Amino acid sequence: MPIRIAFIGAGRMASAIVRGLLEKEHYAPEEIACTCGDDPTGPALAEATGIQFLKDITPALYETEAVVLACKPQQFAAISPELAEAARGKLILSILAGTPLVRLSEKFAHARNIVRTMPNTPGQIGAGVTAFAPLRELSDKDNGIVENTLSSLGNFHEVDEVDLDAVTALSGSGPAYVFEFAAALREAGVSCGLDEGLADALAIDTLLGAAMLLAESEETPEALRNAVTSPGGTTAAALKVFQEGDFRGLVERALAAAKARSLELAAE
Ligand SMILES: NC(=O)C1=CN([C@@H]2O[C@H](COP(=O)(O)OP(=O)(O)OC[C@H]3O[C@@H](n4cnc5c(N)ncnc54)[C@H](OP(=O)(O)O)[C@@H]3O)[C@@H](O)[C@H]2O)C=CC1
Ligand SMILES: O=C(O)[C@@H]1CCC=N1
């Protein structure tokens, strides 16, 4: 069976995409190959999913229809000209944070088309969100490959490339902010006298329930917040502390820092 899609990098995100593609039966395991760096992530992914691990994936690229770039942005420069040449006429999908289409197209000068994407880790369970920007308008065939790949991870949105650094700051990195908030809720619950296990369970269910309500409701986050906040009650007391600590300003500065770092990664 020919290899139809090849992964350059076999870490957390490649693993999420491979598992999604297999679960949705877009490819058979034998039609997917991966390679990696010096650590054994590639063999581990192959062992766990049945896909092929190829130490040298270059020869296999000639037979693929698509190549997914899933190494770290700082490892992009190490991708060899031979590998890029073998990807001549292929669709390239990049998940590299920061690396712009212009840089991708310098290396993969003879690609059929290139799509810069920004997924996130909830894609591991099909609950992710991805934004993508193609170099050129996608043909029907390539649109199908992109849709199959991104829908395996969850929802997806086409955007202008200029928005992708901000997308990275919001939804690419965003799960980490939520996990940090979950840990902060657990710690604060313990400080208030709760058992750690109970505080953890309450924090998780609160985040999950609030996110589901937000997704299902037609109300804004502000309206839903107000519905929790009784005048003179407990929530108002807590929100006053958030406001005094400039919670929104803090989030704004955090996203600005992530966006700035994404722009810096463009050249690394
Ligand atoms: N983690 C996240 O939340 C998100 C990450 N991204 C982007 O996804 C990409 C991958 O991230 P993530 O999966 O977290 O990273 P990982 O560190 O888990 O995976 C990186 C992979 O790249 C491999 N690799 C290293 N050097 C090379 C090389 N020269 N050739 C081929 N493969 C190589 C590594 O191999 P080995 O370790 O075996 O040496 C590893 O399999 C990054 O570009 C990141 O910006 C995008 C959205 C979200
Ligand atoms: O932290 C990072 O650089 C990557 C990109 C988005 C999430 N993780």
UniProtKB/TrEMBL annotation:
Top-level taxon of the source organism: Bacteria
InterPro entries in the cross-refs: 6-PGluconate_DH-like_C_sf, NAD(P)-bd_dom_sf, P5C_Rdtase_cat_N, P5CR-like_CS, P5CR_dimer, Pyrroline-COOH_reductase
Domain spans labelled Pyrroline-5-carboxylate reductase catalytic N-terminal: 4-98
Pfam families xrefs: F420_oxidored, P5CR_dimer
UniProt KW keywords: Amino-acid biosynthesis, Cytoplasm, NADP, Oxidoreductase, Proline biosynthesis
Signal peptide: none
EC number: 1.5.1.2
Protein location: Cytoplasm
Location (main, coarse): cytoplasm
Domain Pyrroline-5-carboxylate reductase dimerisation: 161-265
Pathway it works in: Amino-acid biosynthesis; L-proline biosynthesis; L-proline from L-glutamate 5-semialdehyde: step 1/1
PROSITE patterns hit by this protein: P5CR (PS00521)
Molecular functions (GO terms): pyrroline-5-carboxylate reductase activity
Reaction(s) catalysed by this chain's protein: L-proline + NAD(+) = (S)-1-pyrroline-5-carboxylate + NADH + 2 H(+); L-proline + NADP(+) = (S)-1-pyrroline-5-carboxylate + NADPH + 2 H(+)
NCBIfam families according to UniProt: proC (TIGR00112)
Function summary: Catalyzes the reduction of 1-pyrroline-5-carboxylate (PCA) to L-proline.
Family: Belongs to the pyrroline-5-carboxylate reductase family.
Name of the protein this chain belongs to: Pyrroline-5-carboxylate reductase
Native species: Coraliomargarita algicola
Recorded name of the encoding gene: proC
